[in-house]
Design goal:
The chain is an all-alpha fold. The chain has a domain of 32 residues. Helices cover 35% and strands 0% of the residues. The protein is extended, with a radius of gyration of 18 Å. Keywords: Ribonucleoprotein, Ribosomal protein. One of its GO terms (molecular function) is structural constituent of ribosome. This is Mitochondrial ribosomal protein, putative (AFU_orthologue AFUA_5G09490). One of its GO terms (cellular component) is ribosome. Belongs to the bacterial ribosomal protein bL19 family.
């Protein structure tokens, strides 16, 4: 999945998940194996948005809602 970062449609960028540590090798051929493939990140993003909405929902239920 690629997104043009400087597109006018992009409002902000949030880091949802980071890798443990950057791999330092000349050629990362082993990353081609299915074991190392992250596949789609839609599940990670949906979990993040669900947690974020739960946190903001708790704040509004405490009386800060106008």
């Amino acid at each position: 999945m690629s997104i043009k970062v400087f597109s006018p449609n992009v409002e902000s960028v949030e880091i949802v998940q980071r890798a443990e540590k950057r791999k330092r090798r000349a050629r990362l051929y082993y990353m081609r194996h299915p074991k190392h493939d992250m596949r789609s990140v839609e599940n990670i993003v949906s979990n993040y948005l669900r947690q974020k909405s739960a946190v903001t929902g708790q704040r509004t239920s405490q009386g800060k809602k106008r």
